[in-house]
Amino acid sequence: MEILAKLNGAFMYLICGAIILLVAVICVIFAVRAYRAGKAMGIDTGKMKRVITASATFSILPGIGILLGVIALSGSLGTPWPWLRLSVIGALHYETQVAEAAAEAVGGGGLSASTMTGEGFTTIALLMCFCIIWGMVLMIFNGKSYVTRLMSGGKSTRKPDADAGADAAPAANKKSTAGFGDIAMTAMFIGLVSAYIASYVGTIVSSEGVFTFKGSWLSLAVSVVAALAMAAFLYIKNKTKAEWVDSFSVAGSMLIAMASAILLGGLA
């Protein structure tokens, strides 16, 4: 537990807190400049205030999911580091999975305060940073073209051929489909989820036609509950056309899954 005391020490809070404060100040500066730019463009002040209020309101529940991630990681990595990762650039599903994989790779048997060492934390922290830094690096080279594409609304910049007639204009202005990055990210996430579910299913053994769990069935049960909760959120979104449900689906599914883990934990 000595390593955990160091990870929760004043020095770690000072380093991580200073970075978070810097990012917070940058956010405030951009928000003020955006508000002033909106006024200069003639956008109604009342509309901008309603957008600000709605954005702040819709950020509360998704923020709970981030807080849950900080709490989940703080037991083995201390509070400052997960707080920094999930406050600045980290993603909830990314941070937890990479930290777990790195902890298993260093031979610690997973994320656990009892087995955490200084070398283990260094490896976990380095891997968490190294794997996610490429978005910032690639933006140095691809940022301008990406922003240009966003400003054009994802539409094709190719002009229709003169010989193609009027029918070519709609095709030229048609929005592009999902790019390789979106498809690759979706495929990677599905593969990751499938691997974890397969590891839970792999604990089921059959003996003379009777199926039993070699390990704990709780993980599989909670994953099923989480999937059903997400499906329910998607159904509500599609049925009511309420796009804002997307902002609450991940956090809501996590809370429901955690509640089910507590309720089912007594039976495990």
Outline the structure in words.
The chain is mainly alpha-helical. Helices cover 73% and strands 3% of the residues. Helix 2 (10-40) runs parallel beside helix 5 and helix 6 (92-105) packs across helix 7 (118-132). It is globular, with a radius of gyration of 23 Å. 14% of the residues are buried.
Please provide a brief summary of the model.
With 268 residues, this protein is mostly helical. It has twelve helices and two strands; from the N terminus they run ααααααααααββαα.
Characteristics:
3% strand; single chain; 2 strands; 73% helix; 268 residues; two-stranded antiparallel sheet; 2 domains; mainly alpha; 12 helices
Radius of gyration: 23 Å
Largest sheet: 2 strands, antiparallel
- Overall mean pLDDT: 78
Which consecutive residue ranges, at least 5 long each, have pLDDT under 50? 156-162, 164-174
- Helix and strand pattern: HHHHHHHHHHEEHH
Name the overall outline: globular
Number of domains: 2
Write out the strand line-up for the largest beta sheet, numbering strands in chain order: 1-2
Proportion of β residues?
under 5%
How widely separated are the two ends?
Answer: 28 Å
Percentage of residues assigned to helices: over 70%
Q: What structural category do the secondary elements indicate?
A: mainly alpha
Number of strand segments: 2
**If helices are DSSP runs of H or I spanning 4 or more residues, what is the number of helices?**
12
